[in-house]
Amino acid sequence: MSERDELKAESFLDRRNFLKILGTTTIGGAALAVPGIAQADSSFHINLNWSERRIWRMVRRAFVLDKNSVYMNIGTTGSMPRFVLRKYRKYNHTVAKYPWDMNGEWGTWPYMSNIVEEIAQQFGANNDETILSRNTTDGMCTVLGGLNLQPGDEILTTHHEHVAADSPLAVAAQRFGVIVRKLDIPVFATSSDEFVDVFNNAVTSNTRLIVFSHITYKTGTLLPAQRICNEVAIPNGIPTLIDGAHTIGMMELNFHTIDCDFYAGSGHKWQCGPGATGILYVRDNLNRLKSYWPDRDPAFFAINSSLYPYLPFLGLQNVLQYIGNDNYPAKRALGDACSMWQHIGRDRIEARVLELGSLCKQQIQNVFGSTATMFSPDVPELSSGLTAFNPFSDLGDGDTLKEFRDRLREDYGYIIRTTDFHITQAGPKVHALRISTHIFHNEPEVLGLVNAMYLLYRDMT
Length: 461
Known about the structure:
single chain; 461 residues; alpha/beta; Aspartate Aminotransferase, domain 2; 2 domains; seven-stranded mixed β-sheet; four-stranded antiparallel β-sheet; globular
């Protein structure tokens, strides 16, 4: 019997036997009860000479996720590792005990310099280009609210953006008379050329900014950010703002190589830091933006700051970093999570996430066949750890998909989410299940998820 036939056969297990097997293999049993983790009370340690299998088993042990379920919604929020949680509690206790100077734990004002120094280099950025923000939305609003936009300016974006971009773009349109052009990006793309062409063909003499998601939260498609910047934006003298909510902590990034002007990402999703943390990159103290916009003085207002009048003296990074009293424990805990990622290796993490994501996509296609619609590309240059698909023929039926999502959680213990979007702006809304595969997952959990979804699908059709 072939592997595909074996998987098909396993898919016909009755629910009781499936749960019995699942409970002893992937959720409640041996896969999580791995002895001998090399982890101190205050940090995370692995031996990089171990086999890949052992490394990922140790990584799984570093998280406190409920053993009676499999959490696969990292695209909404991640989970802090246990050592980050311990240190986070310690930091909060320090601030509560020494509210004046925090016992010197954070250095001197503005208390973020050491953390920024540790984080910036991990993303190919300079210290003075890196701001620890509250989340992606905070970063997007800081940039879009701060740019000196004028009536008639044209902003190119896509029809698959998150409200983190759509909301401040709508404000810019209403407040400044900016023209926001949403471009249809391909859903069933097979090459990065298709995305580059969309933006290239849309640029006009009035285009003053390009805004797009590095990974779309709708379908999990990885856009060719570096190519869009280098082949479209830079030759035309157009600044770029990238929504990186799903790349921070998933992909190995180098902001200088991408060559964008602004990059906003989350700390609480794939990076598994605390809530209300994020990373904002502002290229080279805005020098290129000023060359692109010589008619704007200033080109940028630091609206999300308590120190704008002191901008020339303190520098842009310090001004944007200081928003009054900050959540210092959370941002320091973000630094701890980043240090764990750096220790594991961001290239290794990206490879693992993409490996599990590809396995998920391939197994869905193998088990469901032509009955399912896959919205996420399984092409190396476009793939991510997000998988969006719909097993039902009626793509517009959101209620059935929500029932499927809830029953998958309640009956089988797998936690995913639903999403909805338009294939094209002129087309009808479609619905999808969205799965996140991350470093605390393993192959049996991915196979178990697909098996559970197929059993549930058969029960509902």
